[in-house]
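INFO  loader      accepted 1 record
INFO  loader      residues=686
INFO  predictor   begin
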Amino acid sequence: MIEILGNLFFWMLLIVGIPLLIFFLYGIIIVRDDQVGILTRKIFGQQMPQGQIIARQHGDVGIQADTLMPKLYWRNPITWKAKRVQITEVAPGMIGVVQAIDGQPLPRDRLLADHIECNSFQDAKAFLDNGGRRGVQVEILRPGSYRINTELFTVAITKATIIEKEQIGVVISQDGQPLPPGFVIAPKQEDIKKDHKFFQDGQNFIDGKGFRGTQLDSLQPGEYYINPFLFKVSIYNITEVMPGYVAVLRSNIGQELARDTELPKPVSKKPNFNQPIIEEEEVVLTTDKNERGIWRKPVAPGKYNLNPLAFTTYPVPTSAVTIDWASGSEIRAEHRVDGKLTEDFIDDEKAKEFFKFSQLRVTSKDGFQLEVDVRMIIRIRSQHASFVIARFGSVANLIEQIVHPLIDSSFRNKAGEKKAIDFIMSRTELQKEALEKATGEFEKYHVEAQNLLIAYIKVDEKLLATQTEKELAIQQQTQYEQQALAQEKRIDVKEKEARAEKQKDVIAAKLSIEINKDMADAMRQEAGGIRDKTIAVANGDAYQSKTVGIAIADAYKAQAEVLGSPILGLLKSLQEIGTGQIKITPDVLVTGGSDGGSNITNTLLAMLIKQGAFDLSKPSKKQATLKTMDSAKTDSLPKMPVEYIKPQLLPEEPEPVKKFLSDEVEDLSEPERASYMKQNRRRRQS
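INFO  predictor   done
INFO  writer      dumping tokens
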């Protein structure tokens, strides 16, 4: 019996204990360290109010707001349902955007729920009790671990906002006060004491009455924990103004500009370039950075963290703007800048702007089609950049509206005034005139024309062929002239070569002439010396002869006084015959007649001449003396010259004697000859 009772008790215990054990085990709740326990009351409790999702009171049926921390719990499995979820992990560089599925409804003018003190959404009951609102929360979860009731809060993990270097973040607020009419950029928040820490504290932005829309403040490079549902951040590259450029800024800050209600001024019936270039309405230059309009002072080259939605940049080249009208351009303007500094613009042209148009097609006066390649360089000074942008909007518009039409019309007009050849030949003049005209017109638009060059003029082939043939003919003519000159030069060279070859003989001849001249000079000098010597000797001999003659004459005179002239003459003659100097016997005797005395006389004279009594071979001696008759007999008597015995010997001198005397006279000078002849005449008279 006891055994039966024991078995019965065992089976009863088994039947009752196993369910109890199972019931007990089902009620055990173990929440680990990385888990959160969420309880749901299934039965045996109060019903929640209509529209409520999370039970705030412990006795309410439904998902409980309170969560279970890590621990061992036991709950009646029939009444409670336990759910264990992983804790919410927000990794570094990430944020958690929280959305509540229960709470008070959002206000009609709000998109996000305000921050509620609830220990970063870890105290769900406090969130609900303190007036937490449904929807996306302004508050976000920063990196860390959170025990959040995932039945009440949905957490979306997203990346934090990262601004790289040389970038900026433009913030657009999705919530806050509505943007006032007339504003493009949200004004500063009214309560500046509420620092939103670069939009990382959304609640301070809301509490500070920040405005919706694009914010003026931008995010600099760095990492930001910003609620992407409250602030939308757009990444832009920083604004870089290259060397050779300035940036004109158009401010979009402030209220919309007041509009003029007056009607516009009427357009002139005769438009011309002298009309006002800039109307008063177009000059909207400002010096206040918080006022809408174009800044008066442009931004210098450099890098700037400019909000591109708050400030529109218009790059203006200040170095050189090159404009080409050249062949191969199928589009009207190949390069243009629309007002924004894009990456292509920054990487492409560093220090100059380049525009390219198609060739200028013009028609000459004589109907030829010409294509002209032109390059022009203009410059805009930095102080004039704002005026150019205010008037034209961009440099490209300036070139298309002013520069291109002006240059095109200028060349067309000039081509219509000239023939094709004249147009081509006057390219330098065309350049100068076009540049002068452009300089005067561009000055009205604050643009400086620096240079204009005509690169190439394409001419009709027929005209070019005619001109080429003409030039070839001219060149051939020039070539022939040059060849003729070359031949003349060749003749000169040959002549000089021949002269060079004969130069030796020429020099020898010149030297011979000089030598002969020198010899002639020497002979003349020698002859002059001989002449002077002869004159001196003759003067001496004349003086000697004169002295001797006077002495002899005196001796003869004395003898004549003693003996008588006839006897003395006869004695002297006989003396000469005796000495043998006078031959009295003729070699040939010629007689005629009976006059013997005459024959004797002729015979005597012939003998005297033959014997050399009158020596005619020596006419150089000034005074000649007869040979002495007998030196032994007449030593005591002086010798007498012939001239003193002629009157006594002959009544008239024979021809040989005259010749002798004339030869003697010729050797004398003119004064001496005159003196001698005078004395001779006197002697004859005496």
